[in-house]
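Give me structure tokens for this 393-residue protein.
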Amino acid sequence: MKNERDHASIILKKGKEKPVINHHHWIFSGAIMAMPRCGAGDIVPVKSFSGDLLGHAYINPATSITARMINFDDASPLDSIRRAIQAALKLRKALFNERTTGYRLINAEGDGLPGLIADWYNGLIVLQVSTLGMERLKRVIVEILCKELNPIGIYEKSVMPGRAEEGLSDSTGVLYGTLNEPVEILESGIRFLVRVTDSQKTGFYFDQRQMRELVKDYAGRRRVLNCFSYTGAFTVCALKGGAMTVDSVDTSAEALQQAKENVTLNSCDTGLSRYFEADVFEFLRVTHDAYDFIILDPPAFAKKASDVVKACRGYKDINRSAIKRVQPGGIILTCSCSYHIDATLFQQVVFQASREAERNVRILQRHHLAPDHPVNIYHPEGEYLKSLVLYVE
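Here you go.
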């Protein structure tokens, strides 16, 4: 071995270099033979057992994913980060025009920047930083984004369970410029008001953009039930698609009020919409209303691997209830954003729900990936969202 005296680099165990050679961003603790003499969050070279330089990573010895690669060559790490940000922004510029002013700018590993999410809200950037290494780079990232985009403001909303494992507390606040709420964005010409400070995620679910387009296609002349409706993006799209009626159900009165505002903002017929502050599971069990199209887009039921069994029961319960409730010839859009439940397992759960509901069910379509949420082909773990469009006889 060439690196016995190399105290500045991560040295991988013999035979553990293949994932890094294949440009996978994560290095687990079990793959590491020797750690450098440096602090958590520092950027260090990564070398194979034989001493070959594989790239650079930031480290955190306190976590199971001990290092995350930020490049796979001998380039300056900061130059690599700058180029990755510029490439991400170039992609978004090619994807969107003035009819869409809200989208994801940077999608973590999907854009070669592990631990970093950045969303664009019509001039406002909202950052989510989930790792210690990226936390140390935050000032540099803000400088690059300001230079490249000249935003009105940059607001940090780093509120997620994973930060605690990284040794970080939640962090929110204005990092640059100003924040005026609500922010109005366009999505394919449809208007939405977004409150980023008091909201889920960064304020809006950009990852469901293509499925909202699909809802418009299916909603015509149907009675629609939008479960877990949040601020009503699916509700507005169903109305724009010609739905006869749309009922929205959510446990949050504030979210329902924002849904009403978004319906009004788009000059939709408010007489076609009703809003129910209720638990969706209970609502589906007790409602006697007839629906031709049911939308199920719940929050993640499995936050960690140990939640999978319980989460599958939840997904089966809610899908069984929806399948029983929808009218013959009806449509169900059912989704899961639980990373720990893959597409195969999710379809199996829906299969079980269909059998227990004793209805004939066919899959019409699967999830359409929002292009501003690219999945790095070398990092398939970035694919978390699953959707099925079901036809129920």
